[in-house]
Give the backbone structure.
Amino acid sequence: MNAHEFETFLKSLVEQDPSAAVGVATFSEAGYTVSRVGLRMTLPTGATIYLQIVSSGQPRPSADPLGPPPPATPPVVLPAHGTTTLAAVEEYLAAVLTGSQDRRIRDVEVYGARPVRGAVPYGLKVTFHSGARISCYVAHALRPGVSEPGTRRFPSIRTI
């Protein structure tokens, strides 16, 4: 699965998720031009996440190999009031992906749960049975009422 296909796939999963009222648009639909592929997510509190999507790994086979999906993680309900932790957003996305039980997905790793933090503190890595990998980086995290992302990307703040 490449980045554009994953963008469509994840958008449809979020749109169909009954556990949260999350608004979602592709970067293209949202008019965001800093990155080509990703999603703008409006959380129930009114906060906004810009999730950049990047693909890497093995060259794409003619058909995506199937295998056992990762175990489903419990659904995560994002708060409707107050603040939302970026860790909760990561967990929500991981639950949506693993809950799909898509047999192309081998593993979903939450960046915030890593024992050693990387350069991008929040996001996910999705590994497929084909060997392909998709990284989803929290590029911007905007508090409610803030409509435009600034120039600084990959925030290290913990809550919005």
User: Anything to note?
Assistant: The longest helix spans residues 3-16. The chain is about 20% helix and 25% strand. The chain has a mean pLDDT of 87.
